[in-house]
Amino acid sequence: MAAVVDATDGFVVVGSATTGEESLTAVAELAPDLVLMDVNLPGIDGIEATRRLGAGRGGPVVVLLSTYDEDQVDAAGCGATSYIPKAAFGPDRLADAWADALGTRTADQG
């Protein structure tokens, strides 16, 4: 994930976590604008971590990533702004997800 963020203009990695619990702590300490959350984290999964972050209710913008298509259904109900399959995750998809979250994506971008 970090390589994609580094390759995307205007984005920088400010932290990382390897478990759902660590993600909650990192977000509380770092207050990022955007969280890229893997659905399949040890401990609490990325969907539950997203719920706890208050995504969509004043918390950070959360984009969920997973290798499993069925996770997209769960992503919609946890407050995540969008879901990107890992196989499709790249700088363009990241920039589009951010623009969608901010409501700044134009017709010629999508």
TrEMBL record:
4-aspartylphosphate: residues bearing it: D38
CDD domains associated with the record: REC_NarL-like
The entry's keywords: DNA-binding, Phosphoprotein, Transcription, Transcription regulation
Species for this entry: Nocardioides guangzhouensis
Pfam family, one: Response_reg
Name of the protein described by the UniProt record: Response regulator
Signal peptide start and end residues: none
Phylogenetic placement of the source organism: Bacteria, Bacillati, Actinomycetota, Actinomycetes, Propionibacteriales
Response regulatory domain residues: 1-101
